[in-house]
Design brief:
With about 190 residues, this protein is an alpha/beta fold. It contains five helices and eight strands. An eight-stranded mixed sheet has the order 4-3-2-5-1-6-8-7. A hairpin with a 5-residue loop joins strand 7 and strand 8. The radius of gyration is 16 Å and the shape is globular.
């Protein structure tokens, strides 16, 4: 059975909006301005270690516009790995090796977890991440926390009365002051 691993770029104040240059956000590309080689290597290894990518429509549109234009081993992996999109509006995905999940999304994701042998990574996709959390489908969170307070923007987690207990299982730091905090969901 596959595990679902949510992997996100976030600021110290919990913002995850437009890390890579997406239009319409005052602080867009806040990750790109701070990236360093070790982080890129970490993210590349992460996609190598996962069987598939699970994303929502907004992230799909952003990734599908960008990744096919990039060159190199990282781009080759992103463009070739199986991708699953949760969307009611994407009908015929243009990005290579992409499947739009059919039927009730959480039931389709439960089936995907049963069918795949390797783990599934989720990037971006704030709405999807919160739905996965609500339905207890997340197994692990990897939060790459950047040393910046953005002060505005969409935060990763919705405000809710529901709590989730997590256990810290790994940390990794980078020369620019960013850290990856890896938490497993306690059940």
């Amino acid at each position: 059975m596959a595990r679902i691993v949510v992997s996100e770029f976030i600021s110290i104040d919990g913002v995850m909006e437009a890390p890579g240059g997406e239009p319409g956000y005052r602080h867009t590309n806040w990750v790109g301005k701070r990236h360093e080689a070790g982080q890129i290597e970490y993210k590349f290894q992460e996609v190598l270690d996962h069987e598939a990518l699970l994303i929502g429509r907004v992230t799909y549109e952003s990734f599908a516009d960008a990744w096919p234009t990039y060159k190199g081993a990282f781009a080759d992996r992103m463009n070739s790995m199986p991708k699953y999109v949760v969307s009611t509006t994407v009908k015929t995905p243009a990005w290579n090796n992409t499947t739009v999940l059919q039927g009730e999304p959480m039931a389709a994701i439960r089936k995907l977890k049963q069918d795949l042998k390797g783990d599934i990574v989720v990037g971006g996709s704030r709405t999807l991440v919160n739905a996965l959390k609500q339905h207890d489908l997340v197994d692990e969170y990897r939060l790459m926390v950047f040393p910046v307070i953005l002060g505005s923007g969409a935060q990763l987690f919705y405000r809710t009365e529901d709590a989730a207990d997590l256990r810290l299982v790994d940390t990794r730091s980078f020369a620019n002051g960013a850290v990856v905090l890896t938490y497993r969901v306690e059940r």
